[in-house]
Amino acid sequence: MGRLTFSAEPWMSCDECFEAVDGYVEMLLAEAPDSIPGLRAHLAACSACLEECRSLLLLAAADAGVDPGRALERLGNA
Q1: What is the rounded distance in angstroms from the CA atom of residue 43 to the CA atom of residue 28?
Q2: More confident residue, 8 or 12
Q3: What is the pLDDT of residue 15?
Q4: Are 41 and 3 within 8 A, CB to CB?
Q5: How far is Cα 68 from Cα 15, in angstroms, rounded to an integer?
Q6: Rounded to whole angstroms, how far apart are CA atoms 72 and 29?
């Protein structure tokens, strides 16, 4: 239900999301403050982009040898 009522502002297209998702994943893994609110809003509304971000996060965490748990929690709150 939250996805239906979540504000998607500022608006971001799937193409723009795709361009920004690498940096967002790095930010999540580094536990840095969220600095891309448009991407966060887009992920909350777009299940395809959210799944792409989640997959990329898991690959990046495995490649870096870090536990993705905390980043996945933050992503789940997108």
Answers
A1: 13
A2: 12
A3: 95
A4: no
A5: 25
A6: 9
Q: How many Cβ atoms are within 10 Å of 7's Cβ, its own excluded? A: 9
Asked if residue 57 lies in contact with residue 72, where contact means CB atoms within 8 angstroms, the answer is yes
42: tokens are 């887009």
The amino acid sitting at 30 is A
Q: How many CB atoms lie within 10 A of CB 47?
A: 10
Residues in the chain: 78
CA distance 44 to 49: 9
Confidence of residue 4 (pLDDT cuts 50, 70, 90): very low
